[in-house]
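Troubleshooting log. The previous run stalled partway through. Resubmitting the same three chains, unchanged.
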Amino acid sequence: MYVAVKGGEKAIANAHRWLDEKRRGDPSLESLSLAQIREQLSLSVARVMAEGSLYDADLASLAIKQARGDLIEAIFLVRAYRTTLPRFGASEPIDSAKMRCSRRISATFKDIPGGQILGPTFDYTHRLLDFKLAADGDVDLAQSAEPSNDHMPHILDLLNRDGLIQAEETADAAPGDLTREPLSLPATRAVRLQALARGDEGFILGLGYSTQRGYGRSHAFVGELRIGMVIVEMMIPELGFAIEIGEIEVTECETVNQFAGSKTEPPQFTRGYGLTFGQQERKAIAVALVDRALRWRELGEDNLGAPAQDEEFVLSHCDNIQATGFVEHIKLPHYVDFQSELELVRQIRRDALSSKEAAE
Amino acid sequence: MMQERPLFRASAVGKSYGKQLGCRDVSFDLYPGEIMGIVGESGSGKSTLLNCLAGQIEPDTGDIAFDVDGTGLVSTLQMSEPERRMLARTQWAFVHQNPRDGLRMAVSAGGNIGERLMNIGARHYGNIREDAIGWMGRVELEANRIDDRPANFSGGMQQRLQIARNLVTGPRLVFMDEPTGGLDVSVQARLLDLLRSLVQELGLAVIIVTHDLAVVRMLAHRMMVMQKGHVVETGLADQVLDDPQHPYTQLLVSSVLQV
Amino acid sequence: MSATPADAGDGYNFAYLDEQTKRMIRRALLKALAVPGYQVPFASREMPMPYGWGTGGVQVTAACLTPDDCVKVIDQGADDTTNAVSIRSFFARTAGVATTESTEEASLIQTRHRIPETALREDQLLVYQVPIPEPLRFLEPRETETRKMHALSEYGLMHVKLYEDISRHGHISTAYAYPVNVGGRYVMDPSPIPKFDNPKMDNCPAIQLFGAGREQRIYAIPPYSEVKSLDFEDYPFDRLRASGSCALCGADDSYLDEVIIDDQGNRMFVCSDTDFCGSRRDQGHVGDQSDLFETGAE
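Second attempt completed without errors. Output:
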């Protein structure tokens, strides 16, 4: 006896309720506070802000809590929220040369003006599980020194003075905005960098890795990696000047790559660039590697057919919100299309069998 | 017979890659039904020149013009990309040295030949198939291989398929890049015979690049000899081959084994 | 033209999208209607449901809705599949519009993978959810190339694919998302509707709108447009229908779902369009297995 099932609405309501229970977990335990997430899972928060394209640590923390720790789901929440926010305008470009660095290193020179500052990094830690943390131990504060007033110029600007490194183009035109205009190929470098900044860390990491292993051929050095606070300024038309509206933490990575030359220029070093919200070193470096690979045409290099050089492939697939939506959508009912495939296969087999019989 | 108006004109075409010279200052007119052979050793710049002429790469200097509709030469460099693409699909054809570059390997022989027909509106499966079978016959491919993919064909067969695919819509100008390169000598000879009869039958104008003087002897009315990017000698093919003037041409001619 | 905000609570604009966004989408829709079948790029917004789950259709619907509209949402032809339920309640919540399961009553129908069996009228809008808008996508993955092919009407490759099907199987072997030519010019992907539904697009009195959110494209077919499924003269388009009638209402010309009813693999065929089937049963039509059938409670 066939019973047609109805009740999708009730099923959905119940599913949501069960989800809420799972999110809460064991009710005898304290619920996570947003402040705890913001402070103690700050690198997750950084990723959600970066890929969500929205700088707000509390919102990102809320999203992480609501998403039960699934960072891509959290990024989705932040993006959807961002869509609803009114826009007042655009800030002035941030001046990362004026950054208050908590971390600043260069692999290309031993000593640099302003010094190499290690900062709060996992580098050089021994990856040994620390069971003291399980007991929620308190931590002694690190020793602090006087904040440095040393000027920290961009290292690559110094190389630039001798004309050794290819100069970056400056332009006054506003860069395209991927959240307001559809992606159009071929893309400008600004749009590419936007897409990469918003793009999935894992995907870009893999692509960056591939460029180091022969899929693309750029021997990259980290010219500079800096993490710290930069001021955000906005021009107010009524005042006639720009005012400071706040500050944000960013990670900036500039890579130096093998020298190239063109018909008109002798050899110079070339660059890759990566910039993200929050502390996200791995991402910033990977972005710089992929950025450099995607620049093959404007630098007069060969297309080696490497995936990281394929602009359409990289930009169409780096957005994890698009990716997860489409990948997961195959869970939705597709039985109507499947039915039509069934009918077609049946018809073709019928015809094949009957013509086989006719031939015999 | 040669008509008054040229079909194609190259004017001072040049292309270089950094300090490396590709080709330089090449000029000639081509008339309907004429076959121009461009010879030289590898590195002579002949392939660079062909790619410039056929619109595959952009020259640094000079102009290239084609008589699109019988009303006179029109510069192909000034054309919009859509116009150039249309030209490449209808009035021009390009036979690649490696047939894999000129075929869809994942499509059957019939589909490969039929594509250009379908591009210009052919919509009757049976007729398309008949046309494809007809062309397979003309290039001496067995009709029963019409549904096979080119990956299963020998090099010579793939080349024949490429030729059929290119000629099916009756182009007026065909560019050929070493069409017999990489084939066995006997296979080459038969392919050249085929090319010669097809070209004559269809009144095609051809620009063919080759390092093999025998090919030029068999096919070309006129020829150009290139050395290190420069044209060192031009003229009627028979005359140049029988009485070469430039020392380099003399060297080339004398090195060819007389059969 | 601008509508009043929805009831308090959420603080969202009518139908969720802000007015600027709706304006942008409407401009894209007008462009699309002016060039039937042409894919107009638009800046798809991140919506509260995932890409791939109908965001394109939802944005088109949100841009078209007015407070007087009556909305029907179907998925696989049914109103109560989970995603249809979810989208319908989204509009009920954010727009406060009336919703219905009746094709006849609806002024706007958003659909995934089917066209309703009931004939549509001039005062109705049909909004299709589209996953991959580009009909050439699986023949040519590069968008930079397919754009040129559309611009130059270079559709030979499409027919090569159909030719290959016939040479291999004796049939064109595309069962759904079967490509069509609109107004003799653009080749279009009608979304993954079964090819059975293709003829309904031709000369349709309703406006047909197509939204692909993730791929950021909108396209449209104005009323009474010519829509022809691609075929060969000697292998004409065949809409293919399983023989048989609906076991519940006896309809012999509707698209049927195959339902497996027991462990032995016994099957039953029922109308995919639940409203159509229900209406027929209300009018007294019966199928040959309707006595064996029981509508499950709630």
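Takeaways: The radius of gyration of chain B is 18 Å. Chain B touches chain C at residues 81-82, 85-86, 89, 104, 107-108, 110-111, 114-120, 122-126, 128-129, 146-147 (CB under 8 Å).
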